[in-house]
Amino acid sequence: MVAHLVLLKPRATLGEDERDAMLESMRVAFAGIPEIKRVRIGKRILLGRGYETQMAEHFEYSAIIEFDSEADLRVYLDHPQHQELGQRFFDSVDAALVYDYATVDASRVTELL
Known about the structure:
By secondary structure, the protein is of the alpha+beta class. The chain is built from four helices and four strands; from the N terminus they run βαβαβααβ.
């Protein structure tokens, strides 16, 4: 599997119409690009643990988009619906991190080392 991990901090001045347009772009892309196997969206929770104070920046939301292969991720990234989502995304955030990972079940972790 391949995971496309996105952490984001929405722009402080993001208007409701802009937010709704980005959410609609997400809905269309996630539903309309068949190479996507699973999407999980998250909102950060704070537990009062020491590691939270070590973070340089607070990213309020996350998205984890999973694919069967790197080739499927590339199809997603090049897809017109993702291009629209990407434009809206970068217009809507103050900060973001985007990483791609090859993933395996924990029992197969030695394959990554």
